[in-house]
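Example 9 (inverse folding). The structure is encoded as follows.
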């Protein structure tokens, strides 16, 4: 195709493995990166997305905490603040920078306490869990600019981890699978109630971008067998909500999730993101292994971007995009949120190379 097309159509073609005018593009940033870039002369985040003509607009995030909006400060210092959240999780955060919080304690650590929290979780009205007006504004923007409008939100494993923490959750999956399955099913029910409300309020999505960090840098948090027995059913229900409406699904997970890909393809996941290079994922290998069974999003190594070395960045972009874009089925994204330390000048260079090598 030689004529430019709309962002909406450009992304749609990805899922049918057809080539457009260029690959679609989207990216994510740490807050500190945006602050650094503003000092270096960059526009705000909305301006960055406009400047590079990003193709995806997202909305509809669901707050899965049992007590929405609850927060209690337990301890604080100049560097840290420790809080109890609406799930009874006690987490320690850096005060002056972003990052994954330290898991201190999880008060909902037994089946009995889970059952009490479950009642609170299911009693909260779906409207309290979302910014409905913000979602409507995002849809209007997407319609006005003909962007691909995606529902963005978490899935059952991610929500369960926020209630129990990884250690308790993984032990429960092995030692008390019915409890773990109930947590996954309940969190999925919360999500589906919110999706139904969004639809009743007139929200119409082009697809889903489902977030759930189900792996770390060496492997998934559970075996493929355990995934099929305990998590897959919950995932299938959530994915089916979109499939019943003819919509494609992107699944986000950090880490090396490759053993779970076949099962996720079975339930209808269409695309995987962000494909962390530091977890030994390589889109060139995935493209060959899975062919047209899956689309891919990401894999541009953020650790290489941090070098601010243009030769290395050129090699990373040209070698991966040339393979990933062939025959369609690829969306540009970094392999995680772009970290501070990547200069604004470097990022502009990166996006110039993505534009060059992403053309058909």
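The amino acid assigned to each position is listed next.
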């Amino acid at each position: 195709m030689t004529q430019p097309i709309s962002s909406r159509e450009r992304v749609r073609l990805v899922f049918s493995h057809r080539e457009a005018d260029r690959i679609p593009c989207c990216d994510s940033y740490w807050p500190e990166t945006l602050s650094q870039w503003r000092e270096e002369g960059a526009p705000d985040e909305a301006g960055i997305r406009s400047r590079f003509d990003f193709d995806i607009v997202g909305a509809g995030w669901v707050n899965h905490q049992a007590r929405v909006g609850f927060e209690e400060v337990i301890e604080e210092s100049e560097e840290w603040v420790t809080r109890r959240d609406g799930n009874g999780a006690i987490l320690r955060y850096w005060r002056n920078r972003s990052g994954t919080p330290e898991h201190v304690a999880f008060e909902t650590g037994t089946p009995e306490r889970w059952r009490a929290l479950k009642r609170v979780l299911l009693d909260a009205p779906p409207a309290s869990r979302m910014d409905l007006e913000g979602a409507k504004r995002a849809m209007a923007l997407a319609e006005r600019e003909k962007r691909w409008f995606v529902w963005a939100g978490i899935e059952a494993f991610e929500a369960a981890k926020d209630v129990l923490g990884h250690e308790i959750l993984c032990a429960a999956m092995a030692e008390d699978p019915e409890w773990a399955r109930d947590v996954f099913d309940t969190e999925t029910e919360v999500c589906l109630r919110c999706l139904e409300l969004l639809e009743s309020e007139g929200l119409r999505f082009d697809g889903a971008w489902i977030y759930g960090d189900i792996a770390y840098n060496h492997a998934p948090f559970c075996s493929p067998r355990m995934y099929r027995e305990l998590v897959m059913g919950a995932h299938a229900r959530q994915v089916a909500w979109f499939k019943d409406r003819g919509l494609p699904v992107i699944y986000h997970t950090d880490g090396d999730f490759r053993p779970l890909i076949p099962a996720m393809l079975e339930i209808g996941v269409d695309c995987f993101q962000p494909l962390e290079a530091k977890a030994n994922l390589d889109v060139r290998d995935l493209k060959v292994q899975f062919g047209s069974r899956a689309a891919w999003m990401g894999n541009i190594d953020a650790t290489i971007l941090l070098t601010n070395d243009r030769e290395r960045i050129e090699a990373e972009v040209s070698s991966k995009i040339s393979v990933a874009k062939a025959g369609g089925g690829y969306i540009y994204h970094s392999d995680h949120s772009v970290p501070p330390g990547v200069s604004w000048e470097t990022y502009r260079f990166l996006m110039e190379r993505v534009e060059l090598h992403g053309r058909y």
